[in-house]
Structure formats: C-alpha cells, structure tokens
C-alpha cells in the first residue's frame, strides 16, 4: 500500500486544539481588505459626481475598486538608438557563454541579454560544462544593477581618478621596497591561471611581496590533509553517480560543502532504474547535527553532535580498514554507525564516504577510507582548485600587520573586516599599514576603512579565466559595457608590472598555451575547454596516528554551536540581493533572517518557543550566545528545528551586514564573530533574552492541510515487489453506487487536445533536493516583485513558484505503516492518529515544488466574473491582467493555493525600496513579461513567452521542434532533472513517456482538476 504517513507543516499544527490553525484553515485571507488604500484620495472622490457608495453598487463588489489603481501601468516612452548596433535586434535575445567564480560559488553559464542588457542566467549545457548555477548565481545578475555599487574609485573617502590610484599604488610599492616593508596581495581563491600568472610576475618584480589567499568560509583542514597525502593543495571532485552506497559524516554535499555542485551526480543514482521488479537506486546515510539539504534527502539520517561524528568516523575507519583504534561513541549511536560501516565495506568500490568535520585528522581518515574502498566516486584526477585559503597564513598576516611590518596591502574579492572572526585585530593592524587598497564592487566594511576603495566591475562586466577543476578551462567574458567607472584588479596589476596593454590582450595571449588544439574564438563561444587531465601523485600518511588523535577529541562544554551557510545567502557576498533575502530557506521556510536552530528538547530546557499568531505570522524567542572565550552574540532569534541534534544549535553565516546595503536588507546577526579559528563548531552557552522576534515564515501559509494525496512515497522493496496500485493507489469515488477511479468522473466535457501542442511539466520528487534554483530563475524570467519582510509575514509574498517542505510524524517509513496496520477499532484509530500528530525528533523530509497546476478543468476559470483567467488549447492557464478586477474568487477556489494578489504597486514605490524602485534596478526586467500593477491576480504562466518564442523560432526556420527545446524558467534552471517540460502530443518526448510512468500521479487528483503538472512518487531506499 502507499504511505499513509501523516505530514505536518508547522509546530503549531501539533496542538489539535489550536484556534490559530483552525482559523487559518477556514479563513483564506487573514486580514481585512484595505479597500480605502485602493480607492485612493478621499477628497478627490468626495468631490466627484459619483459617490463611493454608487461606484461600489455599480461594480457589485468592493474589492473591484482595485481596478482604479490598475489603470495606471508602468509604461514609459523609450529612446531609440541613434545608430542601431548591427548585432542587436530589438525583441530578439542574445546569449553569451561565460563562467562565474567569486571565491565561493562557481558555474558555467549562458547569459541572456535583451537590447544589450543582461536579464537572466541559464546553465551552459555544452559538453564539458559540468557546473550548474545554484540559487545565488541565478540571483547574481540582479547585483549587476545594484544602485549601492561603488561607482568610481575613492582615495581617503573622496572621489579620485584611476590615474591617481595607479600613481599612489606605484609610489607606495616603491616606498615599501626602499624601506624593506612587506607588500601583500590578499585575495580570495582565484582559480584563474592568468591572474595567478600576473601575481607571480608581480612577486618576481617585487621580492618583498607575497600572495595570501583568504576564504571567508574555510576548507583549510581538508586542503591540508589532501596536500599531506598527495602533495597538492586541492580538493577531491567526488562523482556520486558512480556509487551505490553513500555515507556522509557532517558533509552537506547537496548544499555548500566544498563548493557544492554535487547534486547532479547524486541524483543520477537516486532514480530507481533497471529491469522490472529489480530496479535499483543508491542508498544514502547521513550523520549530522543541523538539518541540511543532504540530511533531508537521505534514506537514513542520524542526528548527532560533531563530537559523536568524530567517534563515528573513527569507528567506520576501524571497520573498513581493519584497525582497532578505541572509540568512545555513545551507546544509542553504536548500531547505526556499525550498520553504516558494514554497508560501506560491503559496497567496496561502489561506496564512498565524505565528511565536513573541520579537522585535519578527520579529513585524513576520509582519504584513508576511500583509498581502502577503492571508491569509484573518489578520484584524484581533475581535483577541485577552489577554497585554497590557508588559515595559518591569514593568521600570520594579521600578526604582521599588527607588528607594523606590512607596508602596502592590496585586497581583491575579500571583506575581512566583516567576515574575519577576529576582525578587530585586522582593523587594528590595518591602521598600521601605510597604504591599503580594496578592490570591491561595494564600499563595504573593508573598503570603507582602506586608503583606496577601488571600484571593481561585476563579473558580467569583466574578462577572466577559471580552472575550477584541473584539466578544465573556462572563460569569463563581459556581457555589457561597464556601467560605472570601474577597473579590474588584473588591469591594475598589469600597470603595476609595467606591462602595456589591457587584461583582455594579456588573457588571450596567456590562454594560448592552455587551449592547445582549439582556438580562442571557439573557447569563447563554448565557454569551456577540456584538456588533458592528470591525477595527483599517490601518497600516504600515518592514518593510525590521525585516528588516535581524532578518537581523543573532547565533546563541547555546554552546547555545541554548528555554523553553516544558508542556501540563500551563502557566505554573505550577495546580502544586498533582495531576491535572495526574500527566498525562503528550504529547511525552515524562513526568509529575511538568520536564527538559532534548536531541538524541541533543548528549547523546552531553555524555555524557548515558537508560536503562530493570529495573522498567520511566526513569532519566536530571543537568546544570547556566549563562546568559551567570552564572545557574545546577543538577541539572536530562535527557531525550534525538528531534526536538530540534542545538545547542539545551528546558526547561519552571511548575515548582519551594514555597510553599502539598503536599510531593508540590513537583517540578521553577524555569526562570523563566533567563527573562532575558522572552525564551524564551537562550545557555547545559551541564555534566554527578553522580547519576541517576528519571523517572515511562509511555512504556515498557503497550506494544503487536511488533504491526503499530496506527497506519495514508498520503499524500494515495495516498489519492486508490489503492483503500482499498491504504492500509487488511484483515488476512488462513487458513481451510480459503484466505486470507480476519480479520474474517470468529470463535471465537464473535454475537448480534443491531440492536435497542436499540449504542454506538461513533470516533477520527480526523488530528484528534487529543495535547492531553490527554480524559484530564483522564475523571479528573473517573470518579473516577480520583492515585497519585503513585513509583507511576507502577512502572507503576501509574490513567489510564483514555492517549494513546500513536509516533515513526517514517524522517524521511518516502515514505522508509520506498521503503526497504522496495528490499529484495532474506532477508539484505537482516534487515539493513534492523534498521537501521530506529534512529530518525530528526527523526521523524514519531503520537498515538493508547487506552482499553478494549469488544470484542464480549472476551478479558477469557472468563478472569474470577468473571464480574466482562461484556458488555452496548449494546456496553459492564462491571465489577462487588464481584465482582472481583483475579486480574488480564483484564489479562493484554487485547491493548490498558487495565486498571488498584488496588494500594492511594487514598481516605482518608495514603500518597497528594492530593485523595482530605481531606474538601474529595473534594467533587469524581462521586456517579454508585463510588470503587474496593484489590484490584479498573478501566478505561474508556464512561461508562455518562452514556449511561444520557441514555436516562432522553429516556424521561421521552417523546421519541427526538437524535444528539449520547450522550456520553462524552472525546468531550465533545474540541474538535477527533477523538472522536465515538454509537449505530450509529441509521443517521442521525455515528458510524454513520464506521463505514462507508473510512478506518475497528480496533486490532489481526487478533486478532478486534471492538472498539466505531474508528480512522481518518491521512493526511499530504506
């Protein structure tokens, strides 16, 4: 049978007598409609010949007054080209291949431009372009048009010319050489062969100079371990598609661990494949403290502290390698760790172990275990050339600065005043540096304190090259002329080296020795080049010593704080980006905040709580964190997080920025102050603070509560052993006193849909990791507005696509079923189901993207009094914004809660001071999609502008459309293949096959809406 597991969406739901939950179930819109705001100027209305009462009587319903505001759309006269560039055709998009690497995120991209403006980022899918864009990279295009960017260089806080900057730097370097002072180049990891060559030439010219690499989020321990064994400072590029057994000890490899981008390979093994009744998929076991994306996708997740993770790692090492290092693992974890170790050993080369523990000894054991397994996923060919920072060298630099031995400090791509845990020491040292310069796109915390604030261009305005993995080479090319008086760090280095010319010429010349067998133009066109890939020299280390040292690790005194990076903001470089600030975190569903995550048991102990209040918003307690050496972080809001290991708390880095950022985005607390020694695990004490924090959490909003067939899932055993009707049952209804499938009964007659195109979107729950790239891509493609924290809290977020997150009530799938099967009688069922409302301390998690389902029999269409929403022959539910009068009947009648009402005009409105409120920010808007005015309803259009453009392109070229050409913003952004879009009338298309797959089902199929979005049953390898 299918899973009858009870899902719940918020802690408040666990209280069966909660009046709040009941009110939210029955009250679609929790606040009174602000009719007066729509009616506008009362004095003007009073003096008109028609009274307000007469007007409302004539219209027939008060909410239609919203049309007054909708009459004034954001339409402006445009200025034509004096001489139109030949390569720009109005209305036709151009695409440029490029690569981004900002020291934290990296991807191979295609950048869409319209009339010379970059407006959207897509994934480069050419052979060799293996790294896809995450949510942050999709959003990074908006940062190009940030009005808070540094627009020209400054010296001592005053505007300056680049000639003055160049002169000042040269004289300072000469003075340093004369006086014997150090010249230091402090950069993030560059992974750029040409820039590294430039720096080497600079150091050769200036023997008193050195290059220090600093990454805000360190992987120094893993780098040190790999270097000790293989003689190369690099990271392993794991290929999870090659293994069937995955064990992770504290590594969120579906998140940001060691650069991320592992989801594509991982998901290849997560879709059941093979012969009938013998389909196979990989098995994933996760040991971790915080609930992460990787833990949420795991088949078995064990919540444990980092101290226990270290002991677990030693135990796994003992089993796989045959060692006998004594471990002190808590008894309740022994069976779980032993099973994982035996599974890994049995898998042999089909197994892999990864770990995120920031300890060199732990990382040495990872290498030893994978060597012993001969893991197919573990290879030293094509190692990752990222996160190359050295904790020791950064610490030495600060000591040198404080000692006054650093004469000239030139920084690029770093913001140590914000991100260093000992930033006060850095600031003190900075005062003793004779001249300091910071190349930055913003006058951030560091640039505002340096002698020279050097305005750097956005990567979409820059030339560059990147070698993310050894043997691959990618080019970064500008897609727009620089918007401001900016200059690349590399161009300044050329001048300091006395080299005539610009960086473009230097880059082109230096690439010649790398792209042998190809040409500059081809690599620039493709965006990537794959050359000969060598492996790192095999080596070894004294793993027994490392295991013994790790086994002696002591647990945290008090609570264990685990710092992490959120899917939205990462290391904080893009904190100025409103798309990312408003993006709900996949795990907590909170936007516009970072917070302490704490287990329910510890929350009760410290008297901390969350509560859903009358307007649907989430409130929470405050707490103060104090480290062992007395560093305090006060008034941090608290989220009670199911799955958080008892005795641990979590807190995200990347928040709390204040400099060069709009006031609305100055949110959260700066957790870098607790990142002592670049270790993400710290011993802390926690005390409750006064006050209540108001969260912008979407988890309790737009719910599908009380519906039974939302998430369908089964075990791999049942999937193979039983018929589809057992694990994917069809809903039944009574027709003429006979039980029939609900899909065979309908209130409407269907018309012939077999001619022309008929679009469907397939969503595989096994492949969705909750990464959110689709959400941001939808924002960019469809001009979705940002509404801000207070409006999100009021259930007024405008996301056209959301990723619902569900928790199970039992820890295991089998446990749910067994408990239900043992129910005997009515009284037993009532008590059992009431008890199952209480969540497990360690729940299973399911992610489900939900957008407009484009129902063939759409309930929204039948209730619209002005036919603003209607159905197309191609299967898309369309919206005519000019017809909409804002009744919101369609939203009431939608069982999926996917429609959004424009309460306000978000364009050119100082109340919503985000990108749509200034001319520069509006440059990102897609001209193919209208910018909606207030008073109308909007929702997912299944990217009708994209499907129509594909049809017109093929028609102009006189050819048939090839499967895969039809895309939506979300399917295009989905790197794992969880979303497949296409034409089901093309019987050879992927989506047509997926519609017939035995795992396919429709959301709320019993309602009879006949959606054009299909889902696939989630299969767990439990």
Q: If you had to describe this structure to a student in words, what would you say it looks like?
A:
The protein is α/β, with parallel strands linked by helices and 1022 residues long. It is built from 34 helices and 40 strands. The strands form eleven sheets. Strands 6-5-15-14-13-7-8 form a seven-stranded mixed beta sheet, sandwiched between helices. Strand 28 (732-735) and strand 29 (738-741) form a beta hairpin. The protein is globular. Residues 50-79 have low confidence and may be disordered.
Relevant terms:
single chain, 1022 residues, alpha/beta, 7-stranded mixed beta sheet, 6-stranded mixed barrel, 34 helices
Proportion of residues in helical segments: 25-40%
Which descriptor suits the 3D outline?
globular
Q: What strand order characterises the main sheet?
A: 6-5-15-14-13-7-8
- Main beta-sheet annotation: 7 strands, mixed
Secondary structure tally, helices: 34
């Amino acid at each position: 049978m299918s899973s009858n597991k009870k899902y719940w969406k918020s802690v408040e739901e666990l209280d069966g007598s909660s009046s709040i939950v009941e009110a939210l179930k029955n009250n679609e819109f929790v606040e009174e409609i602000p009719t007066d705001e729509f009616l506008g100027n009362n004095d003007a209305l009073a003096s008109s010949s028609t009274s307000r009462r007469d007007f409302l009587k004539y219209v027939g319903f008060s909410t239609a007054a919203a049309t007054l505001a909708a009459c004034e759309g954001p339409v402006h006269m445009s200025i034509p080209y004096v001489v139109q560039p030949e390569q720009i055709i109005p209305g036709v998009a151009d695409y440029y291949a490029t690569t981004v690497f900002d020291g934290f995120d990296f991807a191979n991209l295609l950048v869409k431009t319209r009339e010379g403006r970059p407006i959207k980022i897509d994934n480069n899918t050419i052979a060799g372009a293996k790294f896809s864009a995450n949510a942050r990279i999709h959003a990074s295009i908006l940062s190009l048009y940030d009005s808070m960017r540094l627009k020209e260089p400054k010296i001592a806080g005053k505007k300056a010319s680049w000639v003055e900057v160049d002169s000042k730097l040269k004289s300072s370097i000469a003075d340093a050489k004369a006086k014997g002072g150090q010249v230091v180049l402090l950069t993030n990891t560059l992974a750029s062969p040409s820039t590294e060559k430039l720096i080497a030439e600079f150091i050769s010219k200036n023997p008193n100079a050195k290059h220090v690499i600093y990454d805000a989020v360190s992987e120094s321990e893993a780098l040190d371990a790999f270097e000790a064994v293989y003689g190369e400072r690099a990271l392993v590029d794991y290929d999870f598609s090659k293994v069937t057994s995955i064990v992770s000890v504290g590594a969120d490899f579906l998140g940001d661990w060691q650069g991320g981008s592992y989801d594509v390979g991982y998901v290849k093994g997560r879709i059941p494949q093979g012969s009938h009744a013998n389909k196979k998929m990989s098995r994933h076991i996760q040991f971790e403290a915080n609930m992460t994306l990787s833990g949420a996708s795991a088949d078995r997740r064990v919540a444990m502290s980092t101290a226990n993770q270290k002991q677990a790692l030693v135990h796994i090492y003992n089993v796989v390698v045959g060692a006998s290092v004594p471990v002190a693992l808590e008894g309740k974890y022994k069976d779980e760790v032993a099973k994982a170790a035996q599974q890994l050993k049995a898998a042999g080369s089909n197994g892999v172990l990864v770990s995120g523990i920031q300890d060199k000894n732990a990382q040495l054991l990872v290498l030893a275990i994978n060597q012993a397994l001969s893991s197919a996923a573990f290879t030293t060919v094509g190692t990752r050339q990222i996160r190359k920072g050295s904790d020791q060298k950064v610490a030495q630099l600060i000591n040198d600065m404080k000692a006054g031995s650093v004469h000239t400090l030139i920084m690029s791509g770093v913001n140590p005043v914000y991100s260093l845990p000992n930033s006060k020491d850095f600031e003190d040292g900075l005062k003793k540096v004779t001249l300091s310069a910071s190349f930055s796109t913003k006058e951030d915390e560091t640039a505002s304190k340096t002698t020279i604030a050097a305005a750097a261009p956005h990567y979409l305005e820059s030339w560059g090259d990147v070698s993310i993995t050894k043997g691959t080479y990618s080019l970064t090319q500008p897609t727009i002329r620089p918007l401001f008086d900016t200059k690349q760090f590399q161009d300044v280095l050329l001048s300091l080296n006395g080299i005539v010319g610009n960086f473009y010429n230097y880059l082109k010349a230096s690439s010649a020795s790398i792209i042998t067998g190809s040409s500059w133009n081809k690599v620039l066109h493709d965006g990537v080049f794959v050359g000969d890939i060598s492996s790192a020299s095999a080596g070894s280390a004294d793993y027994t010593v490392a295991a013994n040292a790790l086994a002696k690790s002591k647990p945290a005194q008090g609570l264990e704080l685990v710092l992490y990076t959120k899917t939205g903001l990462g290391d904080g470089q893009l904190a100025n980006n409103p798309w990312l600030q408003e993006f709900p975190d996949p795990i907590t569903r909170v936007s516009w905040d970072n917070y302490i995550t704490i287990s329910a048991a510890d929350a009760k102990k410290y008297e901390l709580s969350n509560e859903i209040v009358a307007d649907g918003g989430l409130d929470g307690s405050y707490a103060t964190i104090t480290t062992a050496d007395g560093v305090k972080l006060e008034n941090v809001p608290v989220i009670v997080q199911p799955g958080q290991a008892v005795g641990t708390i979590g807190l995200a880095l990347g928040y709390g920025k204040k400099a060069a950022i709009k006031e609305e985005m100055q949110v959260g607390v700066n957790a870098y102050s607790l990142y002592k020694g670049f270790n993400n695990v710290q011993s802390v004490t926690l005390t409750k603070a006064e006050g209540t924090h108001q969260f912008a959490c979407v988890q309790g909003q737009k719910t599908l509560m009380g519906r039974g067939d939302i998430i369908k899932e089964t075990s791999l055993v049942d999937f193979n052993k039983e018929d589809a009707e057992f694990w994917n049952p069809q809903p039944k209804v009574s027709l003429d006193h006979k039980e029939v499938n609900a899909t065979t009964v309908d209130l409407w007659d269907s018309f012939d849909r077999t001619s022309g195109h008929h679009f469907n979107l397939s969503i595989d729950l096994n492949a969705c990791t909750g990464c959110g790239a689709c959400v941001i891509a939808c924002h960019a493609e469809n001009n979705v507005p940002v509404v801000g924290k207070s409006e999100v809290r009021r259930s007024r977020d405008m996301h056209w696509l959301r990723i619902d997150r569900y928790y199970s009530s039992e820890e295991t799938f089998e446990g749910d079923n067994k408990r239900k099967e043992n129910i005997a009688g009515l009284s037993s069922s009532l008590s059992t189901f009431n008890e199952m409302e209480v969540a497990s301390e360690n729940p299973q998690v399911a992610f489900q993207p939900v957008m407009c389902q484009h129902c063939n029999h759409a309930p929204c269409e039948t209730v619209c009094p002005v036919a603003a929403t209607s159905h197309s022959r191609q299967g898309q539910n369309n919206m005519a914004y000019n017809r909409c009068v804002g009744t919101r009947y369609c939203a009431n009648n939608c069982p999926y809660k996917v429609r959004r009402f424009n309460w306000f005009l978000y364009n050119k409105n100082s109340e919503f001071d985000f990108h749509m409120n200034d001319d520069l920010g509006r440059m990102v808007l897609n001209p193919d999609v209208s910018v909606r005015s207030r008073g109308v309803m909007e929702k997912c259009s299944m990217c009708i502008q994209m499907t129509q453009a594909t049809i017109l392109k093929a028609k102009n070229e006189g050819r048939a459309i090839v499967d895969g050409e039809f895309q939506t913003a979300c399917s295009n952004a989905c790197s794992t293949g969880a979303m497949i879009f296409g034409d089901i009338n093309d019987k050879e298309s992927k989506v047509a096959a997926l519609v017939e797959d035995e795992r396919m089902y429709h959301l709320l199929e019993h309602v009879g809406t006949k959606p054009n979005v299909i889902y696939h049953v989630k299969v767990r390898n439990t």
